[in-house]
Design a protein that fits this description.
This protein is α+β, with helices and mostly antiparallel strands. The protein contains 8 helices and 16 strands. It has 3 domains: about 55 residues, no CATH class; about 240 residues, no CATH class; about 70 residues, no CATH class. The chain is about 25% helix and about 40% strand. A hairpin with a 2-residue loop joins β6 and β7. The termini are far apart.
Length: about 400
Amino acid sequence: MDVGLFEPCKLEDIPAPRPEDAWEYKPCQKKFVMRPEDEISVDSIISALLSQIEPTEVQFKECQWDVTAKEMHNEKQALLFEEKLYISQVKTGPCKLIEESKIFLESELKEVGYMKLSIEESYDGYVVFSRSQMTKGKGKSMCGHCLRGKYDEKFVLIVEKRSEFDYIDKARVEKNMEARNKENILSVIRETKINADSQKFKAEINIKDREPVFIMDGGVQLLMRHLIINNFVGKFEYYTLTLYGKVLHGVITVEKERKKVRIFYRNFANVIVVKNFKYFNEVAEETSETYFTSNGKIVLHFWPRYNYLLHAIRLPPKPKERILPKLELMWKADNLLFKHYQKKKKLTLESAQCYLHNHPEIVDFLYDYIHSVLQKKPEVVFPFTIKFFQNMKNTY
């Protein structure tokens, strides 16, 4: 070893130690300063090392590698949905869901209509559309509604049109309303039709600096879904307008507790309960309860004072059973007789096919017969058939 390669350390070359830099220094060591090219080299080395690391099989199983960019929704895209609900009548009386777990069976509900609800995206907000139709009484009359609304990104009303129709004492009653918000002035046109008679009313409401927000029925559906997606718990207040022109104070309450609901054959656990109260002069005008899943889909909706509810699950159709005559059941239950029947049937079919093959003129006779039946259209086919073939016998 060449001792001349090592030089003794001088005292003036050692900088004064600092407490925060104590870990950087050793005795007889100068302060190390990294050059730019060294820093790039170190970064390149680390990148090269990281590129060689592959995820384990467990990581591959946990990661959703098949998720496309289209499926990664943001908050606005999560509000866009379309669903169909079924309207049923409760046979046991008004709806009550005060129990911890409520079960609806086939014997309790009778399906009487449907409701469609969809929320679409516009360039400056959302478009809400809903439509319903249901039978009344013994199914002789119909009633329903149609709604179209547009709201901006902050759920402020732009325009909404709503119409309802019903039949009362053989008279068609239709109520229409159009509300437009322009420069914080709400213009409302309300129309009531009874058969051919019509009455229109127009009013303007100043909603500038009004708190809480002013929304209509379509905005309420949009707002409730927004609260569910954002895990809101508590009360949210708003103002709305009925078809009769009454301004109501609404309160949406999202409960923290979860419930379990069973409709027909489907169980829904951890359902979010949303109650909607509408007040006029501090008196409750309308109350409704809606049960949502965590992604904002409606499971159940009902009004406690009425025996109608909306539900997302429909009873599967019953399979149609073939009703056979009693004698047919008796001989088909006997294996020996049934095998003999199948054997005779096969022989009869083969014999008929062989006869038709040997006598092709029968096909022309049958064609003439069917053509005559369709042309004459007799009320009783059997005597017409006898006369037809009797005439054919005389002819040939």
